[in-house]
Amino acid sequence: MREKKSMSMASSYSYRNSYYSNNQPLHDEKYYESGRKTPSSTRRQQRSSDGTISTMMSNSTSGRESSATAMTDAPAYSKKIVVVGDGGCGKTCLLISYSQGYFPEKYVPTVFENYITYPTHRPSGKTVELALWDTAGQEEYDRLRPLSYPETDLIFVCFAIDCPNSLDNVMDKWYPEVLHFCPYTPLILVGLKSDLRYKKTCIDMLKTQGLTPVTREQGMGVAQKMNAQYMECSSKEMKGVDEIFEQAITTVVSNDRRNLEAQAAQRQSSRRESSHLGGIPGAAGIRKKKRKCNFL
């Protein structure tokens, strides 16, 4: 049984490598290779530490984001999205395709990478400072990954449509992890590499392992168990990428407004209680003493 599994993994590795050898861009986890420089018009390094943890600020003119110098007003919202999932499932490609506007061609496993973008919340027309936190899916980084979770507004739990095992790992590993560290944070289950669902080479490769690409129904079924939204995209073909982030922005801004409304309602309630107590400042938080009964 173990021998059969190792053969399956080897064949899968061969399939992915053959995809590279044909000089075709594969959905990967990191957008640059060592020594390769990217035009300054595309991206600008904000800060980095030993090449492992860095923050990128987009200078793209796509209208989705802008550089800090081009901004005239401070962002109305500042939000953080963390992306988790198996290594090699396409998390970094999703972030680069969205924030930088191009599909990366070289696979280098991510350690931790941050991207800052300034999209617009369409309903209000206000700018959102969106921090995108890319994480490593490899087991050796399991102890470091929780450092990414504090103050997270939304989490993308990702899997690859051409790798059914990555969907199994969502329920076995990723959902329990985010539920432990971020029990009240909204989730979006994201199916990546949707362009490979009907690709013959992918279908034939999975067939040798007795598998098939993940269907939309299967993804939606898992999302329902997670109480999460479900979306799919192809970073390579840029299909569904913008829609995923627009939905994410709508969700986090909506949650922000709900919190503000709840706080406003609480303040209004406190003022009412204060007025009933003679308008004494802070009286809303004072508990009336229980009157004692005098028995004759």
CATH topology category name: Rossmann fold
Instruction: List how many beta strands DSSP finds.
Output: 9
CATH superfamily: P-loop containing nucleotide triphosphate hydrolases
The helix-strand sequence is HEEEHEEEEHEHHEH
Gyration radius (Cα, Å) is: 24 Å
Overall CATH class: Alpha Beta
What low-confidence regions span 5 or more consecutive residues with pLDDT below 50? 1-55, 58-63, 65-70
Helix content: 25-40%
Instruction: Give the overall pLDDT as a whole number.
Output: 76
Main sheet characteristics:
9 strands, mixed
Secondary-structure arrangement, i.e. CATH architecture: 3-Layer(aba) Sandwich
* Coarse structural class: alpha/beta
Family: Belongs to the small GTPase superfamily. Rho family.
GO cellular component, one term: membrane
Subcellular location: Membrane
GO biological process, one term: cytokinetic process
